[in-house]
Amino acid sequence: MLDLAAAASRSARAGVRSIEVLRTVRELREWRGETGDLGLVPTMGALHDGHLSLVERAVRESERAIASIFVNPTQFGPAEDYRAYPRDEANDLALLERAGCAAAYLPSVEQIYPAGDDTRIVPGDIAARLEGAARPGHFTGVCTVVAKLFEMVRPTRAYFGQKDFQQLRVVQTMVRHLAMDVRVVPCPTVRADDGLALSSRNAYLSETERASALALSRGLFAAREAWQRGERDAAVLRGAAGGAASAAGRPEYVSVADPATLREIAGRADRAVVSLACRVGRARLIDNVLLGMTLDELAAL
Prior knowledge:
Shape: globular
Radius of gyration: 19 Å
Distance between the termini: 29 Å
Order of helices and strands: HEHEHEHEHHHEHEHHEEEH
Low-confidence stretches: 4-16
Helix content: 25-40%
Structural class: alpha/beta
CATH superfamily of the largest domain: HUPs
Largest sheet: 6 strands, parallel
CATH topology of the largest domain: Rossmann fold
């Protein structure tokens, strides 16, 4: 996999910088100019190899690639970790530069939400359950900031990871419903060698908690193995995932849902996304596996 962190850290310490750093809408639009083919990777920073896999794909597939780094306050609830969310601008920029990203957009809150801004995009049924139920208002914040970034950057394609599966589907649905001129590209979840899905929130885990968190991927892999053996009963798949994951910490949900609608499946599952959320120490972790459907098929929804 990518192993850019050490090199990026050296670059950050040395002050090496050739990537364009843009902080205002005006700077962004001047930089973009008439670029015909532009790939965007929206992030909240604290970058890891999962983010960088999206950047590298954007670089391969685009005339120029740009990443945004913005910790979006409107997608955090009152009791969530907005102020504590990990931030490391110098290292993030060095990582993006090493990955070949042409520019980084690092707007202030005032650039995204100017004084008096109370306009919001409220998603529909696709956002009503799972993360939407656990985190009221979360996807309104996601849709609003992503729509603003799409309007500011005007990308040809935008790259989103499978790990945040519901976010991916919510953004895909928003783009379709609002006839936005951008293609959403789903990209595979990147995992550590031991199976844990990479996440910025993994930084919150102690060594003991990280070992416990491995039960999440083990549960999902158990469901996938059952599927590969021919199991199609949603309750059995749900039990396979939840049985192992319950050892990780405090599970919030274990779901077997249709990948298109995210409605829970009762009975036979001919395709499914098996997803879960669990609190491990102070970290809230989510993960999923997609069964009976490829990411290319998902991209066509």
